Structure formats: C-alpha cells, structure tokens
Amino acid sequence: MNEKDEFTVRDRRSGASDIGETEQAQNTSPQGLIQGEADNRQAPESAQDLDFSTFVISLASSAQVNLGAMAHPETNKTSQNFPAAKQMIDILNMLQTKTKGNLTETETALLEQVLFSLRTHYVRAVEGQNKSGG
Predict the structure, then answer these.
(1) Structure confidence by residue, pLDDT tens digits, 33-84
(2) 3-class secondary structure, 4
(3) Domain ranges in the chain?
(4) Do 119 and 89 touch, CB atoms closer than 8 A?
(5) What helix, strand, coil percent values describe the chain, rounded to 5?
(6) Please, what is the angle between helix 105-132 and helix 82-98, to 10°?
C-alpha cells in the first residue's frame, strides 16, 4: 500500500453510524490505531489492579502525607496540612456513607479501620500543634 493511499475504518459493532465511522477514520493514525487507543493498551495491568480497597488506601495515604505521618513521595519531606488531611478524611467518610450496604465485609472493615486510625491521628496532631503554640 502506498503511503498516499487512504483507508477507512468501519465500526461493525451494532449501533455504529456512518458519522462515527467518518469521525473515527479522521482520528486514525498511520498505524491504524485510533488516537488514545495506544495509551489504553500500554498499561492495562494498572487498571486491572485498581479496586475499592486500593482506592481507599490511596486516599488514606494522601491523608497521612498531609498529617505529616508519611514523607511526601516526590519531595521525601514531611509537612503538615491539616485542612487537606481533613478533606481526605471527609471524602473517606462520604464514601463510607454512600457505599453502605454495597461493600464486602473486608472492604467495610478496611474503611472503618482506616477512618478510625486517620481520625485518631488527626485529633492527636491538631492537639499537639495547639499545645506547642503552632
């Protein structure tokens, strides 16, 4: 096939329209991949590893960084940002409320344990800062 020859991509899935086919053909790279499709194929494992528990741990880690309990992953330094930590705790609390009755026992226990731990740490950190006059 000559480099100047054109080709069209036809979506044979049910419900595909001619407009979608034309649009798709215009967004197709020379290798025949739809733009953005290569990005999706590069990291399918990371998307498969993501689950509710991983999401909860991620939010909890962010709260711990903001509480100063963990070093920031990029700077490797600890600092305290209580409003940001409280926001993460509030988000986890909202998740607990909104997902009540829809989680496995393990997920429910994890969320409860994480929230208890973060709340306790938050109260202690704020009280410690108030006592030190900071």
Answers:
(1) 444 444 444 554 555 678 999 999 999 999 999 999 999 888 999 999 999 9
(2) coil
(3) 1-43, 50-132
(4) yes
(5) 60, 0, 35
(6) 160
Q: pLDDT tens for residues 85-97?
A: 999 999 999 999 9
- The encoded tokens of residue 102 equal 């829809």
Handedness of CA 88, 63, 58, 77 (dihedral sign): positive
Q: How far apart are CA 38 and CA 19, in angstroms?
A: 23
DSSP string for 58-124: HHHHHHHHHHTSS--TTT------HHHHHHHHHHHHHHHHHTTTSS-HHHHHHHHHHHHHHHHHHHH
Residues 6+ apart with CB under 8 A from 111: 56, 92, 95, 96, 99, 103
Residues in the chain: 134
- Which pLDDT tens digit goes with each residue over 5-34? 666 666 666 654 444 444 444 444 444 444
Count of CB atoms situated within 10 Å of the CB of 87: 15
| Cβ-proximal residues to 48 (8 Å cutoff; 6+ apart), any chain | none
- Sequence-ordered list of residues with C-beta below 8 angstroms from that of 114, at least 6 positions apart, any chain: 56, 57, 60, 92
